[in-house]
Each structure stands twice: as C-alpha cells, then as structure tokens.
Amino acid sequence: MAFTYQEIILRLVIAAFLSGLIGLEREVRQKPAGIRTNALIGLGAALMTLCGIYVATYWPQMTDAGRLASMVVQGVGFLGAGAIIQASGSVRGLTTAATMWVVAGIGIASGLGFYLGAFFTAIIVLILLMVFGPLDAKLMGSEEEKAKVRHIFQRRSKE
C-alpha cells in the first residue's frame, strides 16, 4: 500500500490539528500539556503509525504494522506518568495524562487513515473536557474545600 504525498500530509495534518484542538482546551484552562504538547504527541503518533505501515508494506517479513503503534502507547504512558504529580496528599495531572494518551490514539488513527474515528474521538474528548470539567468542579468543590476535607481525614486517621 503506497501512499501519495497528499495522503501522508493529510494524515499528519489531521493528527496535529485534532490533537492541537484538545491541547487548546487544556491551554485555555491553564493546564499542563497545552496546544504544542498535544499536537506534537498526536503528530508523532501518526508519523510512527505511518512508519509501521511503510515497513509492513515494503518489508512484510520484518514486522507487523501494529508493533510501532503499540510502542507509541507505551511511550506516551511514560510521558503521562511524568505529568502526574503527587503533592501534599493529592494527585494532580491525571486528566492531562489521560489527554496525552488519547491524543496519541488520535494520532495513530490519523496515521492509519481512520479519520472518522480520529474526528469523533477528538469531539468526544473536547465535550468531556469542556462540559464535565466544570461540572466536576461544581460537584467536587474548589481545591481549598478539597484540601480542608483531606486535612480533616488526615487528622482523624492519626487519632
């Protein structure tokens, strides 16, 4: 399966654009891993997926196309672990890590040419972040209120 230049460029641009949209939402909320980080992760995942397809096309005896995509998922998991911070009894950055992981999936889907899956995944992620983020904040209270509750539980567990 040989790709035209236009197909390669389209797959890379779609991955970067959709991943960057998710990064924009993170940027607006002043969270780590904004536009550039998410766009780069999605773009890199798409490129590595294209490389897997390329290798499987021209050297089918060497490998399968899914192997490189599998490594992308593992590598982004490592990046996500770096985004998670444990400080003063609370864990922060889980949503950022999950966003980075799903953006890699969008990149893989774009690299494979599975545009419909990439597009709808990006839309669903944006809805989850934009709708459920503020809803979660209202239901769970502010960071100060959460800190007070943690402090109370920590005091009681020591008694």
Describe the fold and architecture.
It is a single chain. By secondary structure, this protein is mostly helical. It has one domain (5-158). Helix content is 80%, strand content 4%. It contains 6 helices and 2 strands. The chain has a two-stranded antiparallel ribbon. Helix 2 (35-58) runs antiparallel to helix 3 (66-83). The longest helix has 26 residues, at 115-140. The radius of gyration is 19 Å and the shape is elongated.
Termini gap: 67 Å
Rounded to an integer in angstroms, the radius of gyration calculated over CA atoms is: 19 Å
- Fraction of residues in H or I helices: over 70%
Strand order of the largest sheet: 1-2
Strand residues, percent = under 5%
How many DSSP E strands? 2
Characterize the largest beta sheet: strand count, sense, and whether it forms a barrel: 2 strands, antiparallel
Number of domains: 1
Low-confidence stretches: none
One letter per element, helices H and strands E, the order comes to: HHHEEHHH
Mean of the pLDDT scores?
Answer: 80
Dominant shape: elongated
The secondary structure category is mainly alpha
Helix count from the secondary structure assignment:
6
